Structure prediction request, 567 residues.
Amino acid sequence: MAAKPPRGPARSSAPSTVRPSADTATHTQAGAGERAVLDSAHVGDIQGAFGTIREHDTEGRRGWRSRGLALLAIAGPGLIVMVGDNDAGGVSTYSQAGQNYGTSLLWVLLLLIPVLIVNQEMVVRLGAVTGVGHARLIAERFGRFWAWFSVVDLFVLNFLTIVTEFIGVNFALSYFGVSKYVSVPIAVVLLVAITASGSFRAWERAMFVFVFANFLVIPLFFLAHPRIGSIAHGLVIPGIHGGANSTSVLLIIAIVGTTVAPWQLFFQQSNVIDKRITPRWINYERLDTWVGAFIVVIGAAALMSICAFAFEHSQYFGNFNNAGATASALSSRLGSAAGGFFAVVLLNASLIGAAALTLATSYALGDLTRTRNSLHRKVTEAKGFYAVFTLLVAGAGGIVLIPGAPLGVITTAVQALAGVLLPSATVFLLLLCNDRDVLGPWRNPPWLNVLSSVIISVLVLLSLILMATTVFPHIDVTRFALIGASVLALGLSGFGAAALRSRAGGQVTVIDSGPQIPKQQWTMPPLALLQRPVASRGRSLALAGMWGYLILSAILLAVKAAQLSGA
Prediction:
């Protein structure tokens, strides 16, 4: 067994001395193909909902049929994480956008497609190449403090979001006259039963039932008699019906938060690992993710359009209350079939959202506590993993049963909170995807770093606008946004110029330590062989600044939620 190296590389003042590249030397120590998996259940055949791929399958896929069968076996993590993102809070947020602002906010969804693809493609590579979950990688590369900080944030956000999923269950089945004291407990038992089956394939097949049920939005869309011209106008021409103000900006941030959520990063990386996807199959999982990204945006646009066309020129327009009231209003405007379809879509979204969110939390806590966390294991083999899942869904369901709980306010506030917390999650993601020891030849190319930096900066700008409108309710939001965008553009330009100068002046010669390993066979070596990167002063200050930013944002967001509740 190889001895564990020091936790940090020795500093050297000689610029010409460079350690061997992680593309060659570091991985040679571990051996080609040796993955740093933390649970033996994460190694073996890929057992997907629609097929199996053997662990040592080296057969080339040349025909469309063989490639299609491989895609069917691998498909799952990307589709589930994306469709799960159109959860109860998503249905509520998109409905509110359509009912209060018509089709004028559809452009926000179109802009989110590249954000979804970029973020989730990076976690696909991290999962397949490293075999280690997102929380554990943060612990290894940034320290346990930052790992626990990220996971505690994730735990709080996810728990509150799971509450909104059971709010959705309540609203959906209340439409059919079912009491929440019956519907919510049944939903809790159903979710635990599906997840604790001890079979990854059985769990994934249950999730695909929810994925396919998501397409019930199609007949509902046509019942609303949509106008394609209005939809196209809303997609390509940015605008806000009634003008920009603090409430509309909060809703835009809620749309961002419900469509691009931090839990997605943790879930898909761990689910890719749990499904036993290796670098050989990355392109198939990328396609799974890309298809999922378009499906989630199309579904969100359909929900927004349904409410826009159903409620225009009526007493319901501009008066969104909650998703349950929207179902009743749709029944009044379009007939009982429309209301029933909407209620079923809401129920389906709530269940798949609760399943994915709770599993993401269980994966993350399992990573940090180093306990078994695989859907391949039975309850007796992973008691802690399944106990966390059960306690989360039971606790969240219990809150919904409390009389007088402010359910509507929780729904809106949670989605906006996700938008505020997302910048920190994406910062860690970007740093990990540039870590030579972690991803080797799979790390980000320069163009992707540029695009990711722009995405993170825009997310930060949206959060700053939220804080400004909270502290100064009468601020000119449009002017503030233009000023912020100008400052952002200047900052990105300066950062880019500094990066180019640093790159030009920092060229070194890498020592060749042996034959290079083919990219498709390169995996991260065991964690014991990795050296923790040197914590520079700039890196530490950036992380500390992000911590303070998150605390301030969360406080101001809570103040805004309280203002909306009082109003």
